[in-house]
Write a structure and sequence with these properties.
It contains 10 helices and 4 strands; from the N terminus they run αβαβααββαααααα. With 232 residues, it is of the alpha+beta class. The chain folds into 2 domains: 95 residues, Glutaredoxin (3-Layer(aba) Sandwich), CATH 3.40.30.10; 113 residues, Glutathione S-transferase Yfyf (Class Pi), Chain A, domain 2 (Up-down Bundle), CATH 1.20.1050.10. Keywords: Transferase.
Length: 232
């Protein structure tokens, strides 16, 4: 039987079946990237709910796996060298699972490069900017009277949506075939409605992005992954 005792996180969130991949997450836009990917590739796994509260993400057990105290994180008991490996950062997890399964990362060097650059577009741009938009438009930052932070992120979110609208003018998926880039981008686009920011961003003026998100959300694996782990 696989031994995960080297990972302190397994003491707080014990594995029922340590022979399968262990997912530590919560259904946020970043968190569901991992669960959607796992559902898409069909790799057996076990999900553990790690809430966003400090008692979980800043616990010594979770920090032992991800010192950056952010979900998601995984342990693969069957790592590249046959030994267990822990991985954090949602983009790194998508790349790892794509390489491990040989799925959704392209087959040629050119395809992999195209997919990776759009994954980085989400990691470095779309996700952080929409996250800040949410903070300043819906959450605590909305109470700040100075309009400049809010206007800054509204403007940047509009710019990024325009980039996506142009890229999707002649294709169904962001980098050609459905890939980890779409798994990264789709959940963040879905979050715009949660932030109540569709009107301020002119969402209806992006028909290609709207159709793209509809295609993404129609995938059975996406529908399952969006609810894993369950919030309750």
């Amino acid at each position: 039987m696989t031994d995960l005792s080297q990972f302190p996180i397994s003491r707080r969130w014990p594995a029922s079946d340590p022979s399968v991949l262990q997912l530590y997450s919560f259904p946020t836009p970043n968190g569901v990237k991992a669960s959607i990917m796992l559902e898409e590739i069909g790799l057996p796994y076990e999900a553990h709910k790690v809430t966003l509260s400090d008692v979980d993400v800043k616990s010594s057990e979770f920090l032992s796996l991800n010192p950056n105290n952010k979900i998601p994180a995984i342990i693969d008991p069957n790592g590249p060298d046959g030994a267990p490996i822990g991985i954090f950062e949602s983009g790194a997890i998508l790349l790892y699972l794509g390489e491990k399964s040989g799925q959704l990362i392209g087959t040629t060097a050119r395809e992999k490069t195209e997919i990776t650059q759009w994954l980085m577009f989400q990691m470095g741009g779309l996700g952080p900017m929409l996250g800040q938009l949410g903070f300043f438009y819906k959450f605590a930052g909305a109470e700040i009277e100075d309009p400049r932070p809010r206007d800054r992120y509204i403007g940047e979110a509009k710019r990024l949506l325009a980039v996506l609208e142009g890229q999707l003018a002649d294709r169904d998926w962001i980098a050609g075939e459905y890939s980890i880039a779409d798994i990264a981008i789709g959940p963040w686009l879905r979050g715009i409605d949660f932030y109540g920011a569709q009107d301020v961003l002119g969402w209806d003026n992006h028909p290609n992005v709207i159709a793209y998100l509809d295609r993404f959300l129609a995938r059975p694996a996406v529908q399952r992954g969006l609810t894993i782990p369950a919030r309750d």
